[in-house]
Specification:
Elements lengths: L7 H19 L3 H14 L9 H15 L3 H12 L10 H13 L3 H15 L15 H10 L2 H6 L1
Helix pairs in contact: 1-2, 2-3, 3-4, 4-5, 5-6
Length: 157
């Protein structure tokens, strides 16, 4: 079995846990969602950075930490997602946004700018808008970014 292949049994269990975690998240039962997603992450064999499934589970766990204001823990999980060798994490605007937001919250402005610029380049200003429920407003992060970078110049080139 190659590194990029999970057994059908593991794949099925991961899908089951992902959906169970999603259900908990929809019900705003974030601790239960995180527990289920951590179980899923633990099923992915080492080295986990070779499996694209690691991106999804890590980002989901990181998002719960972020919502709880636990930015250092959130950063660690989003960084794990970003470092995935499939490239899926580094090319994901949401992961770049959350990494930037986490860096901002823990006082790492240099990396906050780098990740927020990447997120902006992927999705533009819309990514910083509140979600459908009016939550997750990234306006303060967009304002931080726009005070350090001429965004109009970036988009007109």
């Amino acid at each position: 079995m190659g590194l990029d292949e999970l057994t059908p049994e593991i794949q099925e269990k991961l899908e089951e846990l992902a959906e169970k975690g999603n259900q908990y998240e929809r019900e705003k039962q974030y601790d239960q969602a995180m527990q289920v997603w951590m179980e899923g992450l633990s099923l992915i064999p080492e080295p986990q950075q070779f499996y694209s499934e690691t991106v999804w589970f890590s980002a989901s766990i990181g998002d719960v930490y972020f919502r709880k204001g636990m930015y250092q823990q959130a950063y660690e999980y989003f960084d794990k997602a970003r470092g995935n060798l499939s490239g899926a994490g580094y090319q994901n605007p949401f992961i770049m946004l959350r990494l930037g937001e986490c860096c901002y919250e823990i006082g790492d402005e240099k990396n906050a700018l780098e990740y927020l610029i990447r997120a902006y380049m992927f999705e533009g200003e819309d990514l910083f808008e509140p979600d459908d429920e009016g939550e997750d407003d990234g306006r303060k992060y967009f304002d931080f970014l726009s005070t350090h970078v001429d965004l109009h110049k970036e988009t007109n080139e």
